[in-house]
Design a protein that fits this description.
It is an enzyme of class 3 (hydrolase). The structure is a single chain. The chain is of the alpha/beta class and about 1300 residues long. It has 27 helices and 61 strands. The strands form 11 sheets. It has a 24-stranded mixed β-sheet, with helices on one face. The chain has a 7-stranded antiparallel β-sheet with strand order 9-8-7-6-12-11-10. The radius of gyration is 36 Å and the shape is globular.
Length: about 1300
């Protein structure tokens, strides 16, 4: 379909003139409907989520009201009908009485828009066509026609002999048959039908573009067809080959927006399976449902998802049917004629509104499968007693509140019962009659508080998770599997001892001890008792000769019993207990142990791997994070020579024995973070299979010798004390990610940076470039750190948004976006959502309104990428009340999906978000059920997502909505920090543990890193994202702090892309200005803000090169470096004469929201100098500087008004092509189209066209004023080809009462470009 921002949409905008605006004024029931033509591009869509599959279509803007019907619109236009398309999917013909504008308004209201005026505005938005679109005629799709029907007039010859001559005949390929007419251009004469299923289609090499069609069987017939063009030949060959390869006569016409089957299909009388799922089939017409009985051999018919409304009685005349699917058709009644289908074996009626069944249905003696899930039944239909062949009762998602076991006893043929999601409250057993036939029972997600199933004596499998069970009583004669997690169980009674039990899951209950019968189970292989209150494990259990997997984490265990003999245990999880030691004999008694997780305990040592020097250990994964281990444990790890994964983070290791590490030759993943290591042994080079090394938050000063490892992929050495890196001549091609942030003393040479150029994700700190004036403006009462880890996934599908200074005042914006399996939507939201929030703040000051509209607008702006893909989103906005800009600060949080936020207040977690998953949110589960969605056994909507609210995934509407949960929390001095994370983080780290973790680690970046490392050590394999925002809120939200004198170096840079040498650095007492709050503002204002800079808090700016970054290039200079001896430049990579500066995409146009400082006329120099008593003087007319996380964005030669037109900085205020180049923006370019290009670049650098370097700003002390004037007179003009001379002076203390006045030709103004321009802040400063 049409791309957002394409020419068709622009045409619509140009047609929306004063006449249309006048029509909309004053009446919200008025509006306009955009009608598209019916031309569809026959070519397949191009690559990319937003590739267009529709060419330019004719647009008509029709003014109407919510009362205008389709019939009236068609009469006005002399049209035949109107069609509607949702989410780029199926196209439905509108009934004459339907009202298009009302349909449009209802759709927007269901999304979440509440204000009628806003609904009217959104309805006129061109981006909405990706969600809902109206057509004036049915779109023609050549590709769809090819799959349903092929026809044409070609030269045909019958038979393999030469007796028949070639003649032109009309030929049709439809369904399973080839139809050849006996006369040219007509089907009036005799028709020759050639069944192709099981036959052959072959190329005739003697003739060009000729195919031979042959039927199957001993009486096979053959036809030769000579096609006119190669395209026709290939099309017919492709389609016929599919037909002949089938083993049954099946025709699949699903998802074609059909109202009737092609008439030619009825010539295929051998069809036995017909799939018409996801269409809009009608009863009447030549190809309507009334004609389906003409298929005399039809056995299987699928009519699901056709919006029928009523049961089509005509299908009851197809007496040969054995399978009938009428799911999701809004059916309320099943007719009595269903009894005619005596051959019926499977009947699917799921997802309808049925509350009863006709008695005639009970006469279908051959029926063995009946689907009644997600209907409105309040009890089990009694007629099931007569359906003796039905062995499974599928009634999930109904309204059965009471289950009478005596009813099941009468249905002696039922073996499997599925009553999930019924709101079931009671299971009654009033008689002593045994229910002997039921073997499988599923009671998940109900409201049971007690369950006694002892009368079901042959029960083999029971699912009763997510109820409110306090007691559970079962019969153990045949029990094999028990799943009873997420209840309130204190005990489980099973009699007799279940000797057949192999799997038992009792996690997230209230068990204080394990029942005695558990130790007597002779075949138990897997036992999960995590998240209970167990204080001990029975010795008999651990010494079981059948137990292979024991999960006992998150309990209160203080000791683990000793192993008395060799046991077959393979996996043991003991994390989050109170263990001070592990059994001495663990490793040499459990020789099959491959997995051990003992993280988050109080271990001070680990047991030896064997009793002798020779070890038989098969341990492959060992997790010991969060204990009290020291370096002595290294010697005990040597015996585990099969170890592949070792996590020993956040212990007390001062070193790691070099000789011991060299013995772990099979090691693939090593996590040593959060210790006190000063170095990583050089023997790590012996671990040839090592692909992941994580050693952040240590005291490492020397870069380890790991870059010569052949399989190394990820190296994380952030938050250490690295000073330099010694690299080999070449890096391994496998290296994908290198994180060196948080190493304040690290200085990288240009040669080193060039060597890193192929790494997909390179993270470096950016040196602070702040002056005293900057600090005065950029000080904020918060600073942040974040971390992203891909885990065992091949790609990172989590994106973050972090802006410490949002807008003009003391505000901030943070976000996290989790795409689960896709990276496109999170990247798009990262690029655009801050800008959308900025725009919505201009329209409303009500937190619930602007946050909700931000999410809904971002959902719309996803365009075609959001039709099939989606993401969880969380947005946090720190701000003052609009009515009281100097008052208290508030935190407004909005989220959809499973991203979560928690605030630490007085050391306690305060949840701020709502988890929109079906398992955790009962009201959302009920809403989805009422809308008749099919919820699979893993609690996913249509088997796609467990979330009921997402941005994107619009094809799942109305089950999955983009409307967010919004909550505003006033901030106070007791609020310490804010934690944001995705589902994977909080699935493994509780709110309380997250808060305690961050309290110990005060640095936000190190805290975010620790949260992610902990989640990985606890067992998380997915992408993890975490943001920690440290808050410094005083009483009454005052954030002032007194001035402090500190000793820090100051640097003065020359031009963009150059770096100051060591000679230009000076140390001394530098006055740090006061941080002022909005209640007590400073008396002077500084120039443009540089948010998120390193000087504002513990978290320095971040230079991160990954696909979500933009790049600026300059080839106007050689970076100002004459030799390798000069100071290296952090964050800048030099490739020849081209300078590439990475810019984080978090730098958004909302930094330019007001434009008050930028659009203001130049101050006089005397006033400007007084505003910078200890800083640098700067110009603001020709350069715009914006930054986030210390990553800087400089755009030269562009007016502020022009910059405002393009809110996305990921495209450098222009459209970035897939090859990295940048073109000038056009009004028709949509924001999402521009941003979508960024994730396509997986490696290397985005190279922008050369841009003119800005001139240097001269910092001139009064004593040198005259000398500088004389030098400037000798300078060449700005446009001269000769290189300009760089002038770099020390920044003196400005003690002169009045700065010197510069010549008038140096003051920016109209005319030629001035010589003196604003200094560009980059990593050189």
């Amino acid at each position: 379909m049409k791309r957002n921002g394409s020419r068709g949409c622009v045409t619509r905008k140009t047609r929306f003139g004063s006449r249309e605006r006048d029509w909309l004024k004053g009446d919200t029931q008025r509006g306009c409907v955009c009608l598209y033509g019916g031309t569809v591009d026959p070519q397949p869509p191009a690559s990319g989520p937003q590739a267009s599959s529709t060419p330019q279509t004719d647009l008509q803007l029709v003014l109407c009201s919510t009362r205008t019907t389709v019939e009236e619109l068609c009469a006005q236009r002399d049209g035949q009908g109107l069609y509607v398309q949702l989410h780029g999917d199926l196209i439905r013909r509108l009934d004459p009485s339907e009202r298009p504008l009302q349909i449009l308004y209802n759709y927007l209201a269901s999304m979440g828009y509440a204000d009628h005026v806003r609904v009217q505005q959104e309805a006129a938005n061109s981006d909405l066509s990706c969600l809902i679109r109206f057509y004036s005629e049915h779109p023609v799709n050549a590709d769809q026609q090819e799959r349903t029907l092929l026809k044409g007039v070609f030269s045909v010859r019958k038979g393999k002999t030469q007796l028949h001559k070639w003649a032109e005949r009309k030929v049709i390929l439809c369904g399973t048959c080839l139809i050849v007419a006996s006369v040219k251009d007509s089907l009036t004469g005799k028709l020759h039908i050639l069944p192709l299923v099981g036959g052959k289609v072959e190329e005739v090499k003697r003739r060009q573009h000729c195919l031979m069609f042959s039927s199957a069987g001993s009486q096979a017939q053959t036809y030769f067809v000579n096609f006119d063009t190669l395209a026709d030949y290939q099309r017919w060959h492709r389609q016929a080959s599919k037909v002949v390869s089938q083993t049954v006569s099946m025709v699949d016409l699903s998802c074609y927006s059909l109202e009737a089957v092609p008439e030619y299909l009825f010539y295929s009388q051998d069809i036995t399976h017909l799939n018409l799922r996801h269409n809009f089939m009608s009863l009447q017409g030549p190809g309507g449902l009334l004609n389906l009985p003409r298929f005399s051999q039809l056995k299987s018919l699928n009519l699901s998802h056709n919006r029928l409304g009523v049961f089509p009685e005509c299908v009851c005349e197809i007496l040969t049917l054995t399978e009938l699917n009428l799911s999701c058709n809004n059916l309320h009644i099943v007719p009595v004629q269903i009894g005619n289908l005596q051959s019926l074996q499977t009947l699917s009626l799921d997802g309808n509104h049925l509350s009863s069944l006709p008695e005639e249905l009970g006469g279908l003696s051959q029926l063995n499968g009946l689907g009644l899930s997600f209907n409105n039944f309040s009890h089990i239909p009694a007629l099931l007693e007569r359906l003796s062949a039905v062995d499974k009762l599928a009634m999930a998602g109904n309204r059965v509140e009471t289950l009478e076991l005596c009813t099941l006893a009468r249905m002696s043929h039922l073996k499997s019962i599925d009553l999930r999601l019924n709101g079931l409250r009671w299971v009654k057993s009033e008689s002593l009659e045994a229910v002997s036939q039921v073997t499988q029972l599923d009671l998940r997600d109900n409201c049971l508080d007690t369950l006694d199933l002892s009368s079901i004596c042959n029960l083999e499998t029971l699912h009763c998770q997510r109820n409110q069970l306090g007691t559970l009583t079962l019969s153990g004669f045949t029990l094999r599997m028990l799943h009873a997690g997420s209840n309130r169980l204190t005990t489980v009674n099973i009699y007799p001892v279940p000797n057949q039990l192999t799997h038992m899951e009792l996690s997230q209950n209230l068990l204080e001890y394990l029942p005695d019968w558990v130790c007597d189970c002779r075949k138990i292989e897997m036992l999960d008792v995590t998240h209970n209150l167990l204080s001990e494990l029975p010795s008999r259990l651990l010494n079981s000769l059948s137990l292979r997997k024991l999960l006992a984490g998150n309990n209160r265990l203080q000791r683990v019993p000793d192993l008395l003999d060799h046991v077959p245990l393979e996996a043991l999880d003991l994390q989050h207990n109170k263990l001070a030691e592990l059994p001495e004999s663990l490793f040499y008694k459990a020789l099959n142990l491959k997995f051990l997780n003992a993280s988050a305990n109080a271990l001070e040592n680990i047991p030896p791997s064997s009793q002798s020097e020779e070890s038989l250990s098969t341990l492959q994964e060992l997790y010991l994070t969060g204990n009290n281990l020291n370096e002595d444990c290294g010697a005990l790890l040597v015996g585990h020579q099969n170890l592949r994964v070792l996590h020993i983070a956040y212990n007390r290791l001062l070193s790691f024995p070099a000789s011991k590490l060299s013995k772990l030759e099979l090691l693939e993943e090593l996590n040593l973070s959060g210790n006190k290591l000063k170095t990583i042994p050089s023997t790590v080079s012996s671990c040839k299979r090592l692909h992941t090394l994580i050693a952040h938050s240590n005291h490492i000063t020397v870069f380890p010798e790991i870059l010569n490892l052949p399989e190394i992929k990820l190296v994380d050495l952030s938050c250490n004390e690295l000073t330099e890196i010694q690299l080999p001549d070449s890096l391994p091609a496998t290296l994908q990610e290198l994180d060196l942030t948080g190493n304040s003393s690290l200085m990288l040479e240009h040669k080193t940076l060039n060597l890193f150029s192929h790494i997909t994700t390179l993270k470096l700190d950016q040196k602070s470039s702040m002056t005293a004036g900057d600090s005065l403006s950029a000080s904020t009462p918060w600073n942040h750190g974040y971390a992203e880890m891909s885990g065992q996934r091949n790609k990172l599908c989590v994106s973050l948004l972090t802006v410490d200074q949002f807008g003009d005042g003391v505000e901030a914006c943070y976000g996290i976006f989790d795409g689960d399996r896709n990276e496109e939507v999170p990247r798009l939201l990262q690029c655009t959502m801050g800008d959308v929030l900025c725009e919505e703040l201009q329209h409303s000051s009500i937190d619930n309104v602007y946050m909700c509209n931000t999410f809904l607008t971002s959902h719309r702006k996803l365009g075609m990428a959001g039709q099939k893909l989606g993401a969880s989103a969380l947005l946090c906005y720190i701000h003052h009340k609009p009515s009281d800009p100097g008052g208290y600060l508030s935190l407004t949080v909005a989220n959809v999906g499973t991203c979560q936020a928690v605030l630490c207040r007085d050391g306690r977690p305060v949840p701020l978000s709502k988890v929109f998953s079906l398992e955790n949110c009962t009201d959302e589960m009920e809403r989805v059920k009422l809308s008749k969605a099919i919820i699979t056994e893993d609690n996913k909507v249509s088997g796609v997502t467990c979330c009921s609210r997402l941005l994107g995934c619009s094809y799942l509407s109305p089950w999955v909505l983009p409307k967010p949960w919004v909550h505003t929390e006033p901030l106070c001095s007791q609020d310490e920090f804010l934690i944001m994370g995705n589902r994977a983080l909080f699935e493994w780290v509780s709110y309380q543990e997250a808060v305690c973790t961050v309290q110990v680690v005060r640095d936000p970046r190190a805290a975010a890193k620790k949260l992610c490392s902990l989640a990985q050590s606890y067992g998380c394999k997915d992408n993890i994202g975490a943001v920690v925002v440290s808050l410094h809120i005083g009483e009454d939200s005052c954030t002032c702090e007194p001035p402090v004198s500190t000793t820090e170096p100051r640097e003065v840079g020359s031009e963009a892309g150059s770096t100051a040498s060591d000679e230009h650095q000076s140390s001394g007492l530098a006055f740090r200005p006061e941080r002022r709050c909005s209640l007590h503002p400073a008396t002077t204002l500084c120039g443009i803000m540089v948010p998120g800079s390193a000087g504002t808090g513990a978290n320095p700016g971040l230079f991160q090169r990954q696909p979500s970054c933009a790049t600026f290039s300059s080839n106007q200079s050689d970076n100002g470096l004459d030799s390798d001896d000069e100071a290296p430049l952090e964050g800048v990579i030099s490739n020849g004469s081209k300078l590439e500066v990475e810019v984080d995409i978090h730098c958004c146009a909302f930094q330019l929201r007001s434009g008050s400082h930028e659009s203001r006329k130049d101050f006089d120099l005397e006033k400007r100098s007084s505003d910078y008593p200890n800083g640098k003087m700067r110009r603001q007319n020709s350069v715009v500087v914006s930054a986030t996380n210390g990553c800087l964005l400089a755009v030269c030669g562009r007016e502020i008004a022009d910059l405002k037109k393009s809110p996305s900085t990921s495209s450098l205020f222009g459209k970035k092509l897939s090859n990295g180049s940048v073109v000038a923006p056009e009004d028709s370019h949509n924001l999402i189209e521009v941003a979508l290009e960024a994730p396509k670049k997986k490696s290397g650098y985005f190279t922008a066209p050369a841009q003119q370097d800005p001139e240097d700003q001269l910092i001139v002390p009064p004593s040198l004023e005259q000398e500088v004037r004389e030098q400037l007179r000798g300078q060449s003009p700005l446009g001269s080809s000769a290189p300009s001379t760089t002038l770099s002076l020390k920044d003196p203390v400005w003690d002169h009462p009045h700065p010197p006045a510069f010549p008038s030709n140096m003051v920016p103004g109209p005319g030629p470009a001035p010589i003196l321009q604003q200094e560009v802040y980059d990593t050189a400063l």
